[in-house]
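Deliverable D2.4 — example input (structure tokens):
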């Protein structure tokens, strides 16, 4: 058992969260005019809080543009948060910079959505995977070569591929290379930013199964971002539903899919087809009217009030409190019980 797996096992025994996000906000300024004055703000992430326990997969779902990917990037400090806190393994990393941030980087990595764009076409597979190892000066010479071959084996690729270039591989193979690169520094936490969205349906399940196998093998913890509700149901332990920069519901997978409490969650799940045609023909489909509001000009009160089928005056005036309605189940809705 590696040192990383022992640490993960110790955290699981104490049930302490590996990642804690508290009131996290990421607002982007809008500039216009010759003098580039700020005329507004895009509230991409607007005050979200959640924990992820060691060895757990938290699925983050929602419509395109709701702030899912931005959340992942802010957590990994690819963006500097406007406010709030990100605590990784007991350490607040929100305001770390320079060498302090560089030392924490190996603990958290990312698997990107597009394997075609995330790999440098001018670098060999071996160079791509060993780049983070070189950056942090962990291994050299034959030890580094052995580590690259070990990682290729772990993701199901032939170690002989080290001298090939990304264009020689299929989309699924490129994503495996990206996963191997993310594992190079033995991270504890990985953000999977829609890692199967750009892949053929025929190989999506293979990549997800690989991620599950690696999680068990290395004791990894995932934030799995996706708009594919069926895939989230397969891989996630708990599910967070995001709408217009805010999390509206967070609960275990079975609770969210079995008895969703927030009207937006109910609408999302009603759009997922059921393979039984008799059940599909009889079940209720919730069709939301209108478009997703702009994050630069969100509605007053609840963000979902402009499309919610049960919205009342209080929804249009007061932002609902993020509250725990059952043990482990949080909802932001005036009427959720």
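Example output (designed residues):
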């Amino acid at each position: 058992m590696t040192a990383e797996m022992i640490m993960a096992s110790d955290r699981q025994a104490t049930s302490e969260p590996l990642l804690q996000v508290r009131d996290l906000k990421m607002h982007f300024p809008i500039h216009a005019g010759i003098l580039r004055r700020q005329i507004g703000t895009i509230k991409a992430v607007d005050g979200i809080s959640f924990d992820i326990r060691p060895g757990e997969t938290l699925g983050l779902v929602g419509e395109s543009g709701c702030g899912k990917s931005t959340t992942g990037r802010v957590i990994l400090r690819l963006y500097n948060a406007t406010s709030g806190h990100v605590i990784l393994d007991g350490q607040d990393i929100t305001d770390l910079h320079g060498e302090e941030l560089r030392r924490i980087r190996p603990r958290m990595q990312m698997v990107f959505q597009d394997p075609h764009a995330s790999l440098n076409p001018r670098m060999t597979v071996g160079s791509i995977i060993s780049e983070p190892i070189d950056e942090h000066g962990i291994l050299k010479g034959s030890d580094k070569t052995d580590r690259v071959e070990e990682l290729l084996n772990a993701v199901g690729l032939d170690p002989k591929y080290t001298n090939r270039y990304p264009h020689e591989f299929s989309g699924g193979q490129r994503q495996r290379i990206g996963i191997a690169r993310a594992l190079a520094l033995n991270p504890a936490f990985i953000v999977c930013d829609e890692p199967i969205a750009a892949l053929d349906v025929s190989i999506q399940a293979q990549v997800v199964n690989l991620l599950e196998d690696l999680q068990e093998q290395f004791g990894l913890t995932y934030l799995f971002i996706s708009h594919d509700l069926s895939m989230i149901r397969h891989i996630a332990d708990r599910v967070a539903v995001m709408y217009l920069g805010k999390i509206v519901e967070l609960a275990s997978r079975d609770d969210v899919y079995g008895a969703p409490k927030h009207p937006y969650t109910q609408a999302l799940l009603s759009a997922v087809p059921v393979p039984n045609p008799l059940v599909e023909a009889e079940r209720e489909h919730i069709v939301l009217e209108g478009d997703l509001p702009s994050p630069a000009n969100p509605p007053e009160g609840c963000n979902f009030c402009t499309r919610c089928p049960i919205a009342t005056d209080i929804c249009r005036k007061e932002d609902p409190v993020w509250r725990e309605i059952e043990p482990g189940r949080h909802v932001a809705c005036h009427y959720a019980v």
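The chain is about 35% helix and 25% strand.
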